[in-house]
C-alpha cells in the first residue's frame, strides 16, 4: 500500500533532481567518486578500478602493469550512449560508460518524490513491441539478456486542436484512419495515399536488418538481399513528409493536422520533417503499438546499465567528462573535471554535437563536417516541464494516456508555449503514484533565452507564473478543477534541462535551419576525428528514444568493425565514408 501523500506545492524545485530510489530494478551505481590526478596513461587507467565491477571485467580489471585500456569509452548514459555501449559489450568489447549524473538515462531517466515516480522526459515509447525488426528498445534489452514487462497503450495520443477538432490516434490503424476520414470525408483518397506511402516506407525499413549505414559490407549486402526496399528508402531519404502530404491533400486543416502529427515527434512542421522519420513513427504506433514499461521509463536505462555490467563492462556516475584527449589527431581517451584520465581504443560521445565539439574539444578548430552540420541544423528548443501529482477524481473515467493540446490558432503550433504535451502514465501503470492519485507530466516548448539573466527570485516567480498559465489552459480545455486537485508540483525550465542533462542550452536535439533535404544532411556516427564517434539525437536519424537507439546500434556496429570485432573492408570503407560525406555537402 503506497504511503499517503502530503499536500505540498513545490514550484521552484528543479524537476530533474536526484532520484530517491530507482524504479523497477535494484541499484548498482558504481558512483566513481574519482580521486587524485591522472598520472601516466597506464597507471591512470590502472588506478581507476571501480568497486564491485572491475573484478567482473574479465581481460583487465586494473591490476598494475596489465593492459587495461578499454575498447570504447562512452561519454554519457542517455539511451543513445547505453545502446551503443551494450551492443558493443554484447559483441565482446570492454566498455566504460562515464555519466555526469547520479543515475543512467539522461532525458529517459526518472526521479521519485513522495511516492510518485516521474519520467524525466521520454514517455511515449515506440520500438517496444515483440515483433518486426524495428522494436529496437526490445532488441537492445535482449542483447544484454534483459526483458521488461510492458503495458500496451490503446492509443498513441489524443489531439485537441483548433476549431474543436479532436482526433484520437487509436492503436489499430483502421480505427485511426476511419476516424480521420470521418472528420475529412472529402479527403478520403488523399488520407489513404499519404498514410499508404508511410506504410510502404515503414515496411521497407522493417524488412531490413538494422546496422550501420556507414559499413559497406553490410550496406551492400542489404542492397543485394532487399534491392526494392533499399531503393525505396534511398528514394525517400531526401524527402520531407509535408511535400508528400501536399501532393495528395488539399484541405488546409487536414494539412495542419499532419503538421501537428509531425511536430510532436520532430518539433517542426511536416515540410521540415524527414519522410522516413515520419513514416517510422506514424506506422510503428500501429504496427508494434506504443507500450509503456511497468515501473516507468527509467527502468529501460537501469536495465541496460545492469545488463552492461553483467557483460563485464563498467558504468561510473558523477563522472563529468571535460575533454576528449587527442594523440596525433586521434581520440585516445577522456579527462574528467577532477583531472582523472581514462584511455580507450575509441571514444563515443553521447553529448550533443554542440557539446562534443564546442566543449569536449574546445581547443580544436571546428572540423568542416561539423561546420556543415551547424549550417544545416540549429538547436531545437528546450522544454518547460511540469510534473504533478493530482487527486485521481479530477480525471474523467476513460481519460487517455497522452494528449496534445493546441487551442485556438494553428499559427501557435511551433511557437514557444504554443502547444501543450500531456502524459498521464498512471492511466496505464497506477503503481507510479500513491493510491487515489495520478501523475500529470506536462511539457511545452521553451527557449533558454527566455530564462537567462533573471535573479533567483525572478526565475522562481517566472516558473510559477508560466506553469500556472499552462495549468489554467489545461483546466479550461480538459480537466475542470485541475488547479485544486494538485498535491505535488515541480517545474523545470530550459535551464533545468541544461543543468541536469548537460545539454547545450537545454536543447532536445537538432532542428533543420530551413527546409532540409530529408535526412540527407544528418551526420552518422563517425566524425572527422579518427577514433571519435558521436551517438544520440544529433546523429542520424535524429530526436526520439527509438531514433537514438538506432543511432546506438549503428554506432556500435561501426566501432566494432573498426576495432576488429566485426568484418570490415578498409578499401570499401574509405570509398563509402567519402561518398556519404560528399552526399551531406549536397544537402
Ligand atoms: N518520447 C518522449 O516522450 C521523449 C521525451 C523527451 C526526450 N526524448 C528523447 O530522448 C532523446 C535523447 O537521448 P540521447 O541518448 O541523445 O541523450 P540524453 O540527453 O538523454 O543523454 C545524454 C547523457 O549524457 C550525459 N552527459 C552529457 N555530457 C556529459 C559529459 N561531458 N560527461 C559525462 N556525461 C555527460 C548526460 O548527463 C545524459 O545523461 C531526445 O532526442 C529526445 O527526443 C523523448
Ligand atoms: C547510402 C544510404 C545512406 C542509404 C541507402 C538507402 C538505405 C538502405 C537507407 C536506410 C535507411 C534506414 C535504415 C533508416 C532508418 C531510420 C529510422 C530507424 C528512423 C527512426 C526514426 C524515429 C524517430 C524520428 C522517432 C521519433 C520519436 C519521437 C521524437 C517521439 C517523441 C515523442 C514525444 C515528444 C511525446 C509526445 C507526447 C505527448 C503527445 C504527450
Short recap of the structure:
This protein has 587 residues and is of the alpha/beta class.
Structure explained in plain terms:
The protein is of the alpha/beta class and 587 residues long. It has 2 domains: 70-126 and 130-148 and 294-379 and 510-586, FAD/NAD(P)-binding domain, CATH 3.50.50.60; 152-191 and 249-293 and 380-506, Polyamine Oxidase, Chain A, domain 2, CATH 3.90.660. It is 36% helix and 18% strand. It has 18 helices and 20 strands. It has helices at 41-46, 79-90, 136-143, 173-183, 188-207, 216-225, 227-236, 241-248, 252-266, 275-287, 298-310, 353-360, 368-376, 456-477, 482-485, 494-501, 545-562, 570-586, and strands at residues 70-75, 95-98, 110-113, 116-119, 150-152, 155-161, 165-170, 291-293, 314-316, 321-327, 330-336, 341-349, 377-379, 382-391, 402-405, 420-423, 437-446, 486-492, 510-512, 532-534. The strands form 5 sheets. Strands 1, 2, 9, 10, 11, 12 and 20 form a 7-stranded mixed β-sheet that branches. A hairpin with a 2-residue loop joins strand 3 and strand 4. Helix 2 packs parallel to helix 11 (298-310) and helix 5 (188-207) crosses helix 10 (275-287). The radius of gyration is 23 Å and the shape is globular. The protein starts with 40 loop residues before the first helix and ends with a helix. The relative contact order is 0.19. The model is unreliable at 1-67 (pLDDT under 50). Bound molecules: nicotinamide-adenine-dinucleotide (NAD) and lycopene (LYC). Nicotinamide-adenine-dinucleotide binds at residues 75-81, 98-101, 106-108, 121-124, 319-321, 350-351, 355, 501-503, 508-509, 536-537, 543-545, 548. It catalyses: 7,7',9,9'-tetra-cis-lycopene = all-trans-lycopene. It is a peripheral membrane protein. Residues 20-63 are annotated as: Disordered. Pathway: Carotenoid biosynthesis; lycopene biosynthesis. One of its GO terms (cellular component) is chloroplast membrane.
